[in-house]
Protein 1
Amino acid sequence: QVLLQESGPGLVKPSQTLSLTCTVSGASITTNPYAWTWIRQPPGKGLEWIGYITYRGDTGYSPSFKSRTSISRDTSKNQFFLQLRSVTPEDTAVYYCACLLEDYWGQGTQVTVSS
């Protein structure tokens, strides 16, 4: 059974960096051809694709987030990470990590941006 679990602060102040971790169990993040994705859902809105990191460590980002986003990984811990810089209240959302190829999703974690 493959499980994904998001973790990180639930409250971030404006202008700071949002940092989240996705811990994967039951599958290796280095397994070909998996790509590991971050997605979010702001309140009252649809899903927004943020970006991904592949099994090789290559990354790709949505143009909407590219300028202030970094996705990285720690293969020794089977984790991958999201950093979203210079956040505003519009970044308030439920953040999900996922493997879309296999439709594996974490349960999501609420992040609120507020002073």
Protein 2
Amino acid sequence: QVQLVESGGGLVQAGGSLRLSCAASGSISSINHMGWYRQAPGKQREFVAIITSGGSTNYADPVKGRFTISRDNAKNTVYLQMNSLKPEDAAVYYCNALASLRMYWGQGTQVTVSS
């Protein structure tokens, strides 16, 4: 079992920055990929970014060049640095982990971007 707890969401003006954190606990050694997804009201949950156990990263097109995912293995934490935020980035952001062929999700953290 893996538990994920997100933090760092909040209200920010367009053009501003936020850093989300996701702390993992439990069967840490079984974690492979970790990533972030988001879900805006009335929309489906969508992929944002992923980082593998080896440190390779991939991003959704709408966030490329603005968001950066990173991983601190010593702290069992994944971060999402979000810069140049746009109103369309507003959503609940969910941390995700793939461990032993099973997907785990955090409870989500709200990001609100005012125009």
Protein 3
Amino acid sequence: QVQLAESGGGLVQAGGSLRLSCAASGRTFSGDTMAWFRQTPGKEREFVAAINWSGARTHYADSMKGRFTISRVNAKNTVYLQMNSLKPEDTAVYYCAARSVRPGSTWPPPLLEYDYWGQGTQVTVSS
């Protein structure tokens, strides 16, 4: 059974940092694009960051550039999101997602192209 399991969320003060982890299981994800999205109540799920299979290529939403860093360790089937200088508006449920290899497809993939999703981890930033 393929699963993505996020961890590392919690409550932090504005200006603080958190590191989210996403552990994949059920098969190897070393060839997949991995990404983080976030969602707040009443809003659509929002792209945060994506990383290609090797880690050599990353992409961030504009509001996260310079504050968030996505990385992966394929040997551990794990992807990370280091979040620094957190703001109250970063409060959301953060989801990990995986998209299987699709040669010639758009990168980073749009939301609907992701094949697997985690259950999410809550991040709350207090002012």
